[in-house]
Specification:
Layout: H1 2-14, H2 16-36, H3 51-62, E1 72-78, H4 88-101, E2 107-111, E3 125-132, H5 141-156, E4 160-164, H6 177-193, H7 196-224, H8 228-258, H9 263-290, H10 298-329, H11 357-367, H12 369-384, E5 392-393, H13 405-417, E6 425-430, H14 437-449, E7 454-457, E8 461-462, E9 468-475, H15 482-493, H16 495-502, E10 505-509, H17 511-545, H18 549-574, E11 590-591, H19 594-622, H20 627-654, H21 662-694, H22 703-708
Parallel strand pairs: 5-11
Antiparallel strand pairs: 1-3, 1-4, 2-3, 6-9, 6-10, 7-9, 8-9
Length: 734
């Protein structure tokens, strides 16, 4: 592989005009496609294989005009102090609002509070339910604007009016913090390279890669049903890995220049060596992201595949566009150790000849491996403790900031009708095979009334054929509580008895039941997903390092860092630690998809540093150094770059903490803290400590496996002009 990539790097350097024009053409083509593509909202949400989804599908068949998966809104009215919603003036204002809401082209129905008896007992609060023909993710902006305008007109009449429900879901905003993250990345690159030109190359190529990836996602959003969250995730990961991969190659290019090589030769060798590490690091990220498809949640699959495509583009750009731009940059990119004149180049350095920080740190770890290993493991273990209290769920209006109308509507409904009113359960009774459907419907209602934590059970509402009915159940507890989850399981537990007695089938759905089913599905998929992703990446790393223990150590180190990161997420978003600093207004359960998402993404990103740092160590080892010296050499050349890459990735991910979307905020924080733990504690401390303790055994590989594995030559052995200069040491075989 190194020889092929070496030729690719030299070709891109020589034919830089062709390569640059090719990428500019791709960016232009993607941009034109995105600009001309029809607008698409968020992607549709379905959970195949769950009871809640089966119930929705049944409702679409038996209640064709109902729009079971259509968006809903609750327009909540509160009377002025000293007045009630039943008074003439208030009633007139509400009915005028209901009439206005009914005029929308996407509106399926609007329930009048007075006809539907949705006025609180004390008469101060009422609500109108709005049902739309399309889902909240497909709702047009015009319909959302009409909903807001109708609420505004009611406010002018003196009422307090708030709007809840999924009809107001909108594209999340990331705010200025994302730009700040990129700014920090730029500063780190300038400090690392000592040159504005060299620092600008990774930023430029990362922006081009993300531009192509996100534009392609935008262009394909309508036909592939991709949503706004998909492009946000692709931007987040694409920026991080795009900058890092380019950083690795530019850094190696400068090191090759420092050894006296010509610029074209240096570009070829940089792509042949660091580029090999980039290819395998990118493959681990792609495997982890594409592997999200095993969960069988379409939205998660699309997010993973789209982000994986952006990572693949980042790898290709690093291998081709970076050497092309290095050809344009010429002598403005200095050899390693030299700075540009603008940043102090040419001055005598007081630290000349002194070992760099990476060398000094690695030497310390090699001398004290046990102490460093214990300290790192105990520290990560302590950070992981909160993960034992992890509670999973999906956000609802109750998790919104108190400044939003959705949250205020949620609170008003809780005050007027009880906390469980915000999460009603929809019980669907399929009595098509029953001899007496009406008796089956009534039996289900009676059974549910006998359960604890039930406030209200509405009379069955049958369809026109009379073979299916809907029963609405209002719990006592709020939607995200464990008590409500127990109630859902209790109702479902009545299903077998109902079938035996009446030949009817009972299904529980609704937003609350759907959230419970999603959480369960994600929990069930976590271990198979972990086994698949870690297993495939483990095999890949065996090929890269030609070792069994090094990939095993890499996987175990990753588990430590991801557990510690989950602990930090629980501490901030569930317990409320540092919530003010993170602008977390409402604590609650961690989103159900967070653990499996972090496992996938963090594993892929963690392997970036593992591959780049340890391939340097193996390169030194196969060229004749003893294991301890190889560890120090790996840090001498790799620590500065890996540190810069980690800081950049942390800065980029931290920029998304400012998002208005709870999911994006949590993902940004989780990935940033996970990269911190993995890069600075696992890869910088635990890895060299373990390798020092293992010695030559770290590079042990059974003889039969050594013969079976392909030689991918990540170390660039095939590029050595004098192969006999440093004979390859004999590997330890079983």
């Amino acid at each position: 592989m190194a020889t092929y990539l070496y030729k690719l790097g030299r070709f891109a350097f020589r034919r830089r005009h062709f390569v640059a024009l090719l990428w500019i053409a791709l960016l232009t083509l993607a941009g034109v496609g995105a600009a001309s593509a029809p607008p698409a909202g968020n992607s549709s949400f379905s959970i195949p294989g769950t009871e809640a989804q089966r119930a929705f599908d049944l409702l679409e068949q038996r209640f064709p005009g109902m729009s079971a998966d259509g968006a809903t809104a609750r327009v909540v009215f509160k009377a002025p102090a000293g007045h009630k919603m039943t008074e003439a003036a208030e009633k007139k204002a509400v009915q005028k609002t209901v009439k206005e809401l009914s005029s929308g082209s996407e509106v399926a129905s609007v329930a009048d509070p007075y006809a539907g008896h949705t006025v609180s007992r004390d008469g101060t609060i009422a609500y109108a339910s709005v049902k739309y023909k399309v889902s909240g993710m497909e709702l047009k902006d015009a319909s959302r604007d009409a909903l807001k305008e109708a609420a505004g007109h009611a406010r002018k009449a003196g009422l307090t009016v708030e709007v809840g429900g999924d009809a107001l879901n909108a594209t999340p905003e990331t705010g200025s913090s994302e730009v700040i993250g990129i700014g920090i990345a730029a500063v780190v690159l300038v400090i690392t390279f000592g040159s504005l030109i060299a620092a600008g190359l990774p930023l430029l190529t990362a922006i081009v890669g993300v531009g192509i990836g996100v534009s392609a996602i935008t262009a394909l959003a309508k036909p592939l049903d991709l949503g706004s969250t998909t492009s946000t995730l692709a931007t987040m990961i694409g920026l991080a890995v795009g900058i890092d991969y380019a950083l690795f190659i530019v850094s190696r290019y400068r090191a090759e220049l420092a050894e006296g090589r010509e610029r074209e030769e240096a570009a070829g060798r940089a792509v042949g060596t660091a580029g090999s590490a980039v290819v395998f690091a990118g493959l681990t990220v792609v495997i982890a992201l594409v592997g999200l498809s095993v969960v069988n949640i379409p939205m998660l699959t699309k997010m993973g595949v789209a982000a994986a495509g952006t990572v693949a583009i980042a790898v290709l750009i690093a291998l081709t566009m970076i050497p092309a731009l290095l050809g344009y940059a010429g002598r403005t990119v200095k050899p390693a150790g030299e700075k540009s004149r603008l940043l102090g180049g040419g001055r005598a350095s007081a630290k000349a000849g002194r070992p760099n920080m990476g060398t000094r740190w690695a030497s310390f770890v090699v001398r004290r491996p046990v102490a460093v290993l214990l300290l790192g493991v105990i520290g990560l273990g302590a950070a992981a403790v909160p993960a034992a209290s992890l509670e999973l769920g999906l956000p609802d209006d109750g998790s919104q900031p108190v400044s939003t109308t959705q949250r205020r509507a949620y609170d008003l409904l809780s005050d007027g009708f009880g906390p469980g009113f915000n999460g009603p359960l929809m019980v669907v009774v399929d009595a098509k095979r029953s001899d007496d459907p009406k008796a089956a419907f009534n039996k289900v209602g009676d059974e549910i009334k006998g359960l604890k934590d039930v406030v209200t059970v509405t009379p069955p509402t049958p369809n026109k054929a009379g073979d299916t009915a809907i029963i609405t159940v209002v719990p006592k507890s709020k939607p995200s509580s464990a008590t409500t989850e127990d109630l859902v399981h209790a109702i479902r537990g009545k299903g077998d008895g109902i079938t035996t007695a009446t030949d009817a089938t009972l299904l529980v759905t609704g937003a609350t039941a759907m959230n419970i089913d999603v959480s369960q599905k994600l929990n069930d998929a976590l271990l198979p997903y972990l086994a698949l992703v870690v297993g495939l990446a483990f095999l890949l790393l065996i090929v890269v390092f030609r070792s069994v223990l090094v990939p095993l150590k890499a996987a175990l180190g990753f588990l430590l860092s991801v557990l510690a990161a989950l602990g930090a997420v629980v501490a901030v978003f569930q317990w409320g630690w540092l919530s003010g600093l993170m602008n977390v207004e409402q604590t609650g359960p961690v989103m159900s998809m967070m653990p499996i998402f972090m496992v996938g993404v963090v594993f892929g990103l963690a392997m970036d540093y593992e591959v780049f740092l340890v391939t340097r160590m193996r390169e030194a080892y196969v060229h004749g150094e003893n294991p301890g010296q190889a560890v120090v050499t790996g840090f001498r050349y790799g620590a500065r770059v890996v540190t810069a890459a980690a800081v950049i990735m942390i800065a980029v991910f931290s920029g998304f903490i400012g998002s208005s979307e709870a999911m994006i905020k949590m993902i940004g924080f989780g990935l940033a803290i996970a990269v911190f733990f993995d890069a600075f504690i696992v890869r910088m401390a635990i890895v060299p400590a373990v390798l020092s303790l293992l010695g030559r055994r770290a590079w042990w590989l059974p003889a039969w496996l050594d013969r079976a594995l392909p030689n991918v030559d990540v170390e660039g052995e095939g590029l050595r002009t004098q192969p006999d200069e440093d004979p390859k040491p004999e590997l330890v075989h079983a």
